[in-house]
UniProtKB/TrEMBL annotation:
Pfam families per record: Beta_elim_lyase (PF01212)
Organism name: Nonomuraea recticatena
The family this protein is said to belong to: Belongs to the threonine aldolase family.
Name used for this protein in its record: GntG family PLP-dependent aldolase
Alphabetical list of Gene3D superfamilies matching this protein: Aspartate Aminotransferase, domain 1, Type I PLP-dependent aspartate aminotransferase-like (Major domain)
Domain Aromatic amino acid beta-eliminating lyase/threonine aldolase: residue ranges: 6-293
Keywords of this entry: Pyridoxal phosphate
InterPro entries membership: ArAA_b-elim_lyase/Thr_aldolase, Low_specificity_L-TA-like, PyrdxlP-dep_Trfase, PyrdxlP-dep_Trfase_major, PyrdxlP-dep_Trfase_small
Cofactor(s) needed by this chain: pyridoxal 5'-phosphate
Length: 356
C-alpha cells in the first residue's frame, strides 16, 4: 500500500537525501583508534549543543543509557528510575544483566515526573548498612514517552538535581527526544541538559538519522563511557558514515520539530470531536487516545485502522499512541482523521472494552 500513514513511531523516519549524500562523502577513519574525523566532528557538535565537555557516539539510545548506568553504578549499586520510563520498561533489564545494578522503579505521575519525596526516600538509605543497595544514579526521561510525550520542566529538573547532589548520587537524563522537549519548552537543549551528569540524545526518531545516539557529559564520564561502549560491543570502525547523518540531524532537522508538534495538535483536534474518543492535548509529537466503542477492542481498532492504511499502536494500559514525524504531512494527518471518522461512524452500543 503506497498511501500508508505511519504513526506507530518516529523511529520509522527515513534518512533524508542530504544525509545519504553526507554519508557517501564523509571522511573516514578507524573510530576505535579515535581516528574518524567525521565522528570527532559529530561528538564535538553534540557536546557543544548540550553544553557538556565531551560526547561519545553510540549505536543506540539503549546502549547509551546502559553505558551511562554502568559508568555511574558499581555492581550492587542502585539506579532509581521511573516505573513508566523507557530505561526500565523497554531496555531488557540491561543494567541488571550486564552490570549487576539494582533498579528501583518509582511511580511516575501523570505529568511524567516522579515525586521528589519518593526519590529522596529511595536515596536516604544507610549506606553503612551492608543490607542495602547503595543509591548511585537517578534517571529521568524527557519527554516522558509513556506519560504522553510530556517534557519535564526546568524547575523540576533543577529540584531533582539538587536532591541528587545532596545525596552524592549521579543524575542521568534519558533525552531520546530531548530536542522535542526543547522545542515544546522553548529553551535550548543545553538548558535542559545543564543539571545532568550525563545525557543521551537519539539522532534517529524525529531527527531522521538511520542509526545512532550520543552520550554527553564531563570528560571523565565520557572517557569511562568509551571503555564501557567497547565492552558492550559498541566500538565501531569507519563510523563516520553514521556520524555524517547525525551531523545533518543536529544541524538541519531540529528546527523543523515544531511542524511535527503542530501536526500532532492537528491530529488531536480531529480526534477530539469523534464519538467514543478520549484524549489529552499533546505536548510534543505524540497523541495518546482511547477508544470507547463496543464494536472494538483496542487491538481490533488498531487492526481496522491498519487495514485502511493508518498504522498506530497500543502503548500500555489500553492506550493508543500516534506519533507525528518528518514523513507525516498535514495531508497525511487529515487522511488518518478521515479513517478514524469512518471507523467510528454509525451507532454505538456502549463504552467499549473498559465497560466489559
Amino acid at each position: 500500500m503506497t498511501d500508508v500513514v505511519e504513526l506507530r513511531s518516529d523511529t520509522f523516519t527515513l534518512p533524508t537525501p542530504a544525509m545519504l549524500e553526507a554519508a557517501a562523502q564523509a571522511p573516514l577513519g578507524d573510530d576505535v583508534y579515535g581516528e574518524d574525523p567525521t565522528v570527532a566532528q559529530l561528538e564535538h557538535l553534540a557536546a557543544e549543543l548540550l553544553g557538556k565537555e565531551a560526547a561519545c557516539l553510540m549505536p543506540s539510545g539503549t546502549m547509551a543509557n546502559l553505558t551511562a548506568t554502568l559508568v555511574h553504578c558499581p555492581r550492587g549499586g542502585k539506579a532509581i528510575v521511573g516505573r513508566e520510563s523507557d530505561i526500565y520498561v523497554y531496555e531488557a533489564g540491561g543494567a541488571s544483566v550486564c552490570g549487576g545494578v539494582v533498579y528501583e522503579p518509582l511511580p511516575n505521575r501523570p505529568d511524567g515526573t516522579i515525586d521528589p519525596a519518593d526519590i529522596e526516600q529511595a536515596c536516604a538509605v544507610d549506606c553503612n548498612d551492608p543490607q542495602f543497595a547503595r543509591p548511585s544514579m537517578i534517571s529521568l526521561e524527557t519527554p516522558q514517552n509513556r506519560c504522553g510525550g510530556v517534557p519535564l520542566s526546568l524547575p523540576y529538573l533543577a529540584e531533582i538535581a539538587g536532591l541528587a547532589r545532596r545525596y552524592g548520587v549521579a543524575l542521568h537524563l534519558d533525552g531520546a527526544r530531548l530536542f522535542n522537549a526543547a522545542t515544546a519548552l522553548r529553551v535550548t537543549p543545553a538548558e535542559i541538559a545543564a543539571v545532568a551528569d550525563t545525557v543521551q540524545v537519539c539522532l534517529s526518531k524525529g531527527l531522521c538519522a538511520p542509526i545512532g545516539s550520543v552520550l554527553a557529559g564531563d570528560a571523565r564520564a565520557i572517557s569511562a563511557a568509551r571503555r564501557v561502549r567497547k565492552m558492550l560491543g559498541g566500538g565501531m570502525r569507519q563510523a563516520g558514515v553514521v556520524a555524517a547523518c547525525g551531523i545533518v540531524a543536529l544541524t538541519k532537522m531540529t528546527g523543523r520539530l515544531a511542524d511535527d508538534h503542530a501536526n500532532a495538535a492537528r491530529l488531536a483536534a480531529g480526534l477530539a470531536v469523534l464519538p467514543g474518543i478520549t484524549l489529552s492535548p499533546p505536548a510534543t509529537n505524540m497523541v495518546f487516545f482511547r477508544v470507547h466503542d463496543d464494536r472494538y477492542t483496542t487491538c481490533s481498532f488498531i487492526s481496522a485502522a491498519r487495514d485502511r492504511g493508518v498504522r498506530v499502536e497500543e502503548l500500555g494500559h489500553g492506550r493508543i499512541r500516534a506519533v507525528t514525524h518528518a514523513d507525516v504531512s498535514a495531508a497525511a494527518v487529515d487522511r488518518a482523521i478521515q479513517v478514524f471518522t469512518e471507523l467510528l461512524a454509525g451507532p454505538r452500543t456502549g463504552a467499549g472494552e473498559e465497560a466489559r
